[in-house]
Design a protein that fits this description.
The chain is α+β, with helices and mostly antiparallel strands. It has one domain: Rossmann fold, CATH 3.40.50. Helices cover about 30% and strands about 35% of the residues. The protein contains 5 helices and 6 strands; from the N terminus they run E-H-E-H-E-E-H-E-H-H-E. The longest helix has 10 residues.
């Protein structure tokens, strides 16, 4: 079984990761994505302590309404510590690049997406001997 999860909307990853670990069988995988920790670090002024977890907000517009969206930034070591504390084994860490086909569909955004940090993807596994 494979499950996926976006984590940067959560302050405390522990309960969510524990629940995924509980329901996945040994050998099961969780694919997690987060905003790259450098994204939240570089957009905040004054710059926060990189090694501290903190939150930041963006205003998003949905259906004519503006809604504040809160994101939680963690340094890379805090992310990997949370995964291993929940019992997962990290098998892949990726800084994905956009699909080259996006160059034609989104020419204005493509350069920025292909030259700046945006997301991290983690593939986490429940070890076979975990249970």
């Amino acid at each position: 079984m494979v499950a996926s999860l976006v984590l940067h909307y959560l302050e405390d990853w522990g309960p969510t990761l524990a629940e995924f670990w509980r329901v996945l069988r040994p050998g099961g995988r969780l694919i997690a994505s987060v905003d790259h920790p450098f994204v939240g670090y570089t957009i905040q002024e004054p710059r926060p302590d990189y090694f501290a977890s903190n939150s930041y907000t963006f205003d998003w517009s949905f259906g004519g309404r503006t809604v504040p969206m809160r994101f939680w930034r963690k340094p890379l070591h805090a992310m990997t510590d949370a995964f291993t504390a929940a019992g997962f084994r990290l098998s892949v860490l990726s800084e994905p690049q956009p699909d080259p086909a996006g160059r034609e569909r989104f020419p204005d955004e493509f350069r920025a997406l292909s030259t700046r940090t945006t997301f991290l993807f983690f593939v986490l596994e429940v070890p076979d001997a975990a249970r």
